[in-house]
Structures are given as C-alpha cells and as structure tokens.
Amino acid sequence: MFSNFILSLQHELWLFALIMLLLCIKLGSSEIKPAPLLLGINILLGLNFVSGFFFHHSGSLFSEMFISNELKDFQKNILNLGVLLISLQSFVWLKSHQHIIEFYVLLLSSLMGMFFMISAGNILMLYIGLELSTIPLAAAANFNLDKRVSSEAAFKFIISSALSSGVLLLGISFLYGATGTLQLTELSHLIHNTTFLVFTLILIIAGFGFKISAVPFHLWTADVYEGSPVAVTSFLSVISKAAVIFVFTKTLLTAFDPLQSVWPTIISLLALLTIITGNVFAIRQQNIKRLLAFSSIAQVGFILIAISSNTVTGSIATVYFVLIYLFSNLAAFGVVSLISAVTGKENINDYKELRKTNPMLCWVLTIALFSLAGVPPTAGFFGKFFLLMSGAPNNNFAVIVIAALNMMVSMYYYLRVVKIMFMDKNENPVEDIKIPWYSSFALIICVAGIVLTGILSGSYNYIFSIH
Amino acid sequence: MSQIPLTHILFLSTALFFIGVYGLLTRRNMITMLMAIELILNSVNINFIAFNKYLYPEKLNGIFFSIFIITIAAAEAAVAIAIIINLYRSHHSVDAEDASELKY
User: Fold this and answer.
1) Domain B6-95: which CATH class?
2) Is the Cβ of A455 closer than 8 Å to some Cβ of chain B?
3) Which of A159, A170, A174 sits opposite B33 (nearest CB)?
4) Facing residues of B95 across strands?
5) How far is CA A112 from the centre of its chain?
6) What are the tens digits of pLDDT across the range B2-56?
7) So where are chain A's domains?
8) A82 within 8 A of A326, measured Cβ to Cβ
9) Phi, psi of A222 (to 5 degrees)
10) Please, are residues A324 and A79 in contact by the beta-carbon 8 Å criterion?
11) Plot region of A46 (φ>0 → left; ψ -120 to 50 → alpha; else → beta)
12) Which ipTM did the prediction report?
C-alpha cells in the first residue's frame, strides 16, 4: 500500500521535495550567490528528469482520483525535460535577477499542477490541476517587475484564463447535472447523444481551447507571449500547451467517446480555423516572440487534426509530435532568450547578418525553424507527417489538403527569418555573444533531439508500445 | 409547502453567468473586471449545489466541487490583485484602456 503510494506519486513527490528545499533556502537568511544557486538548481532538475525513467508503476490512488501508468509517466518525463531545458536556457537572464528562487518555485508549482492534471481520473482533480498550473504562471508572466508590458501581459493572462476556466466550469457543472458523476471512466457509460450534452461538450471544448490557444479563443496568446519574459514565454508555449493537449486528448477519447459522431467535426473545424488564422497573422509579425506565438497557434492546429481522427494512432502521433515540437520550439526560444537577455533585441530586423557575428546561434535557429516548418531531414517533418496520416482515415481529405497547403504558407514566414539572418545587410548587427555552457548544453540537446527523434524510429515505437 | 423548482435556480445561475460575462466585456476598471469573474464562478457554484441537492442528494460530489471553486477563486483573486497593484505602480491607473501597449 505504502509503496504503491510512493511509486504512483514519484514525480509529484520529487517536485514537492524540490519546492520545499527551495522555500527552505529562501527562508534561511544566508545569502547564496546566484551562480552556485543556479548550478545547484539545474543539477537537481537534471536529477529530477533522470529519476523519472527508473520506475514505472501502474496504479490508482484516492479511490481512482489519481491514476498513474507508463504513458502518463512518459508524458511527465517530456514535461520534466522541457523544464530542465528552459531552466538551462534562462541562465543568462536569471543570473542578474534578484528573485531566482521565487521564479523556480512558481515554475515548479505550475509543473506540479500539470502532473496532477495529467494523472487525474476525476474532473475535480483535473480542474484543480489546471488552476494550479495557470495561477502561478500568471505571477511568473509578471516577473520583469519594472517593465510596463510585463504587468500588462500578466493581467491579460489572468483575466482570460479566469474567464476560460469559468466557461469550462459551467460545462462541467452541466455535465454533473446530466450524469451525476465526476469520474472520467464512469462518464463514458452515462453520456448519451442528447442536445444538452452536446452543449456541455461545446462549453468544455471552449474552456480547453482557451488554454491551448485554438482559434477563436487565441486572442490572449500573442500579447501574453510578447510581454512575458522569454523563459515564461517558452514555458507557456511548450510545457503548458503540451500538458493541456495530453489531458484534452484523453478526456475526449475516453469520457466523450459516446459523442464521437459530434466532437470530431467540431475539432477539425477548429483545427482548420486555427491553422489558417495562425499562419495569416504570423506573416505580418515583426517581433520574433509574436512570430513564434502565432507559429505555435498554427502548430496546435495540426495537433487538433490528429485529435479529430478519434483513433489511438492519432493520440500516439500527438505525443510524438509534442516531443518534437518541444525540441524545435525550445531551440528557437533558446536563441531568442540568449539574444534578448544580452542585447535586449527582439525584433526580427535586428537579426540581420546574425550569421557573421554569431554563426552557431544562427545555425541553431535555422535548424529549429526548418523543423517547425517541417522540412524533411529534421524531425518536424516526421511529426507533421504522422499527424496528417493519422487524420486521413477519417475520410476528411479536404481538411488534410488544406492543412498541407498551409504548410507551404508557413514556409514563407519561417524562411523569411532565415533569409534575414543569412542574406540581409546590417549596419549594427547583434554583437558577438559569448555563449555560457548552460545555454550551449541546452541548445545541443535540442538540436540532437531535432535531428535524432525523426531519424531513429525508437521514440515512436516506444510511444506506440505504451499506448 | 412546495419546493422551488430546479429550473428557477438554473435560470438564476445562468443569468448570473451572463451578467458576469457582460460585466467582464464592458467594464474598464480592472477591479470591477475581477468582480465580474467572481460572479461567473459563483454562478457555477449555484449550479453545482442545486444539481447536488435536487438530483443526486445521496452523494456530496457537487458540494465538494463548489468548496474547491471558492478556494481557487480566492487564490486567483489574490494573484490578480497583486498583478493589478504592480500594474498600478507602472501605469498609475487601473483602467484597462491605459494598459494597451501590446497590440496586433
């Protein structure tokens, strides 16, 4: 019984211990210099990531409120890896910041919320996890305390996430009224194809759609991404999006299985809207963070196509793509955060002639953008390929064709950045940045991930075997 | 003595929800926008308690859920007010129109 408790909650207990340790360091009055503190935290996060691989345990706790199995462990490992990479990349920004510990406490509590959300077997647990993951993030978005845009972004984030959880809760309350249970496994037997439950379903999709910024619920995304510090932006665009996508897929595939004649249509409609809007708005952006924000909206659209297929292949492709998306997006954000922390430049035109002054950063950003665009040797191609392939059996070929055409549109704005970096002339280019080993280590992991996850089929086979 | 029918209560909660949404979209003062959020969350609380009492009185699921919603709403309001205070320091106003540097 006790070992079941420890093993099922292993990820959460690790994180809890880390948060408590950080709080103890904060409360203990002795001053620790930033460099050794950041080194210690990064080592602990690395241990946290490695420890996730040792034990796999399938079990349930608290009368099936909390469920753990190998797939959920793997999803948590993906998130752990992302947080480790973000922490390594934000070294330059954090070492001059005076609130290092608070930043990590906020980020890790948010991660803990995502873990509980992924493992939730009950809608109550899911809701608490969702809120635990968004509320600390709103505080973290305000972390550049003296910047005007930072507080504006945080305010927009907390108001829109509160509205979205209100809509989600209305849906959950109607669901409870119609079925009388909150257990996800029981719900699938009690849901029937009635108008009231379809209305409930739409409310719940809208609530989740806010969190993954699917169009038409995306309006907060670009503003929040631009105003927040780059570390928080990359956390929002990769980690929190990935966690909500995992939960969203599972909820639709298990609890709403009886409504499978309804929700795939809604989701594929959302997917098309999301891809088209994300691409069209990304074309005209001048700020690199806004560009990546709209590109992440478009990527979510591709994920939604796989979810709309309502098959196991679709959910495998989703997890696989999220892994690749994590590597590619974090490589891009790693370069952006380094340049932003050293020079404060975030405009795309400031990147002119980056090749001459910073060849390594330039090449990493190029590989990342190629992977996001889906150019064949990189993993991004294989990710998108599996997403569209899994969407195909549903006979909605029109959706697939429009999505594939949109990949062409996305080429334009990704390659525009590459063209600016390699070809355009610039009077005062970004100075030669000395890359600290934290950042180069993170960038090397990301590039290795981009190159290897696509070519080696092991990762896909592993995800296939645990589904 | 006859009980109040469930539909009346659902009408009340739905009306509260949409009053909250209307307030959130039209009000320009940030504190008032927060109050509108509270209205939305409380309307959901009414829903949960009404469903629990009228339809499933043998279990307490809905009441538990509403207790958690109240707690989380308090946490959310605390963080939101901290953000608004910080925003007031830099903008010298709590009007949503003044915080409009991020656009398009």
Assistant:
1) mainly alpha
2) no
3) A159
4) B29
5) 14
6) 788 889 999 999 999 999 999 999 988 999 999 999 999 999 999 999 999 999 8
7) 2-55+62-466
8) yes
9) -65, -40
10) no
11) alpha
12) 0.94
